[in-house]
Amino acid sequence: MVDIRIPIGLMFSIIGILITVFGLFTMSNTEMYHKSLGINVNLIMGVLMLIFGLVMLYFARRKKKA
Predict the structure, then answer these.
(1) CA-CA distance, 39 to 47, in Å (whole number)?
(2) Residue 65 pLDDT
């Protein structure tokens, strides 16, 4: 039986990596982040999504061993 944490973890990890890389490449574009008060939302949310995805994958892997 497939654990739902595996595809959720993979999806959030891949999207988190993509958004983090986009945030890193657009870090110097201050005009782009004018509406968000100069905060690089792409970088912050990308890192948070990546962490969440990795935690999901960790719990899925931990469950298989037990």
Answers:
(1) 14
(2) 64
Q: Which amino acid is at 64?
A: K
Q: Which two tokens stand for residue 31?
A: 């005009």
Measured on CA atoms in the order 7, 18, 46, 41, is the torsion positive or negative? Answer: negative
DSSP E strand boundaries for 1-66: none
Q: What is the pTM of this model?
A: 0.85
Q: Which two tokens stand for residue 22?
A: 């986009």
If pLDDT is split at 50, 70 and 90, which confidence band does 66 have? low
Question: For residues 16 and 1, what is the distance between their CA atoms, to the nearest angstrom?
Answer: 26
Between CA 64 and CA 46 the distance in angstroms is 27
How far is it, in rounded angstroms, from Cα 45 to Cα 47? 5
* Closest to 40 measured CA to CA, from 32, 49, 51: 32
